[in-house]
Amino acid sequence: MADGTTMPLKELLEHLEQLANASLPLWPVPAGARARLINVSENATYLVEAEGFRSILRIHRPAYHTRRGIGQELAWSQALAADGMVQTPPPISGVNGELVQEGHAPGLPEPRFMVMFAFAHGRQPDENEDLTAPFERLGAIAARTHLHSQTWAKPDPLERLVWDADAVFGPKANWGNWRDAPNVTPEIRDVLEACEALVCRRLAAFGKGPERYGLVHADMRLANLLIEGDATTLIDFDDCGLGWFLYDFATGISFMEDHPQVPALRRAWVKGYRSVRPLSDEEESEIDTFVMLRRMALLAWIGSHIEAPEPQAMGPHFARNTAKLARDYLARFR
Fold first, then answer.
1. Are 235 and 279 in contact (CB under 8 A)?
2. d(Cα 248, Cα 258) in Å, to the nearest integer?
3. CA 20 to 30 Å from 149, out of 85, 172, 183, 276?
4. Which residues contact 329 (CB under 8 A, 6 or more apart)?
5. What is the DSSP letter of 217?
6. Is there a domain that residue 36 lies in?
């Protein structure tokens, strides 16, 4: 959880838990409700529980989004739900009528933005189960969000992240420099620099036409899907911003790009996507480029968030496996 502080994660989480519970009266929650940490990544996420009540509280890391930008995220997700494009839990207004709240706790260097969401039912899918049917549904979900993106009246200015090549590889990359990730040896660095150059060339040729590039969810990974029967709820629009539409497939296989079932998931996703929105053979053939763009962004993310449990667990092997994927990509496209 790279938040610009040097505070140890354990200490930071203690302060954030204090903030979470002290801030609950900002929303119309029952007396006696308590917040319990359930995830820490870009943000800290809490399950809020009381007798007969559950909700989700998200405490934002500082300097990642503006208040206005968070409001834009919520506006798009609500518009998608209202227009029947996706199932996603609605945000809950505070007692002051605002969706975005702000709070401060002793020990934290600056205030934090916070949003509460209605609790959504369902389970997170596991990468080792058969995900073919869920990915066909996910392809259709992605296509609907892209159709909506093309017609939705976007706020001006749009204060959301950008997920293009410069945002991954440039001097002000969203998640830092992949070279700073753990275990990027000189040999791995050489392979990944060649891969970066090829990805950038192919993305430049692919272009940012309005049929290929727009407002995307940008984080449709398994952790952000809740499945109940044949229904899929899409959560966490925190990274939504401008990017290539096909980037959403790459985010769907985040951290499992080398899993044996990925080719089948790709076929299923494309089938589902084409059931809603056209996708040319040329576009389909470029999916591997977006997979490498995302994988190298994740390598940078691990390096810049290494104090959190998930990056620590993946750190020892992620660079090596990324280099293997890069070698296969270079062999196919160079």
1. no
2. 17
3. 172
4. 195, 198, 288, 289, 291, 292
5. -
6. yes
Backbone φ and ψ of 59, nearest 5°: -105, 120
Beta strands in 119-245 (DSSP E): 161-163, 213-216, 225-228, 231-234, 241-244
CATH number of the domain where residue 87 is located: 3.30.200.20
Per the CB < 8 A criterion, the answer to whether 155 and 215 are in contact is: no
The answer to whether residue 4 is domain-embedded is no
Report the alpha-carbon distance of residue 19 to residue 21 in Å, rounded.
6
Q: Tokens 């549904």 — which residue?
A: 137
Q: How far is it, in rounded angstroms, from Cα 194 to Cα 176? A: 18
Other C-beta atoms lying within 10 Å of the C-beta of residue 187: 10
Residues 192, 62, single domain; the answer is no
Q: Check which CATH number belongs to the domain holding 138 and give it.
A: 3.90.1200.10
Domain span at 212: 132-333
Report pLDDT digits (tens) over 77-106. Answer: 999 999 999 999 999 999 999 999 999 988
Residue 145 maps to a domain: yes
For the record, the structure tokens of 78 come out as 């609500």
Stated pTM of the model: 0.96
Structural tokens at position 246: 């096909």
Partners of 243 in the β-ladder? 163, 214
pLDDT at 248: 98
